[in-house]
């Protein structure tokens, strides 16, 4: 996904690490690096970015103070060594809160959250015969190859050596393990339980550690809850 970001941080080592992570793991445009809040504000008066990586402990203006002065629409990924500001950070336009030192694993998780936040599904295009031209694949179930549009999938359910693929109209048994299916998927498909991967765009409601897709009730396990709810928070108002 093509996004433009900037780094605002007074620690050279932290800046160098973030710069490497952005350049080696994304196709984002890192527009600039600013080492204090005043420099950042001056840059943002003349230039547009989608989001900023923002340190909290900085001279002159700290990150929290700067957050309230950013132009409308500029989102924030806080980068800090201090966990105590996490709750306060979400009173701003915050996508994520990264604790230093930032690990590769944690940064890859942040990439998912950031790109999911900015993801805007493209309008479906109709072909000459009126069928929607969406992403699709063929699923082998028994001796039959079934064409399935990704957007129509409600969930995948693991059943030992098989996976049950469910849409609103049918259920197919596929000879694969759930972990193998998970490795082939990306957002909007999210693991919420050892036995379930759901299409987050098909979720109707979330209540009492369960989510609902039509009449189907699916548990959200503690292992996957934080990641799932962080994604939900990005679309909550």
What distinguishing features does this structure have?
single chain, 237 residues, alpha/beta, 5-stranded parallel sheet, 5-stranded antiparallel sheet, 15 strands
Question: Please, what is the average pLDDT?
Answer: 86
Helix content: 25-40%
The largest pleated sheet is described as: 5 strands, parallel
| Sequence stretches where pLDDT stays below 50 over 5 or more residues | 121-133
Category from helices, strands and their pairing: alpha/beta
So what's the overall shape?
elongated
Query: Distance between termini?
Result: 24 Å
Q: Give the percentage of residues in beta strands.
A: 25-35%
Spatial strand order of the main sheet: 2-1-3-4-5
Order of helices and strands: EHEHEHEHEHEEEEEHEEEEEH
Number of DSSP E strands: 15
How many H/I helices? 7
**C-alpha Rg (nearest Å):** 21 Å
């Amino acid at each position: 996904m093509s996004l433009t970001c900037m780094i605002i941080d007074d620690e050279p080592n932290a800046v160098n690490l973030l710069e490497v992570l952005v350049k080696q793991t994304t196709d984002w445009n890192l527009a600039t690096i600013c080492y204090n809040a005043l420099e950042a504000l001056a840059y943002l008066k003349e230039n547009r970015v989608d989001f900023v990586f923002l340190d909290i402990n900085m001279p002159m203006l700290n990150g929290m103070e700067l957050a309230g002065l950013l132009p409308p629409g500029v989102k924030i990924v806080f980068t800090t060594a201090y966990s105590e500001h996490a709750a306060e950070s979400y009173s701003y336009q915050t996508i994520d809160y990264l604790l230093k030192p930032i690990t590769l694993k944690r940064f890859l998780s942040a990439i998912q959250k950031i790109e999911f936040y900015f993801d805007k599904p493209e309008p479906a295009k109709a072909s000459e015969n009126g069928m929607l031209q969406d992403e699709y694949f063929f699923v082998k179930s028994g001796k039959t190859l079934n064409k399935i549009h990704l957007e129509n999938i409600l969930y995948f359910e693991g059943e030992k050596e098989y996976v049950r693929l469910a849409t609103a109209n049918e259920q197919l048994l596929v000879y694969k393990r759930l972990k193998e299916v998970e490795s082939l998927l990306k957002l909007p498909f999210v693991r919420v339980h050892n036995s379930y991967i759901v299409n987050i765009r098909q979720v109707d409601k979330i209540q009492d550690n369960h989510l609902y897709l039509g009449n189907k009730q699916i548990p959200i396990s503690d292992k996957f809850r934080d990641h799932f709810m962080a994604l939900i928070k990005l679309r909550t108002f």
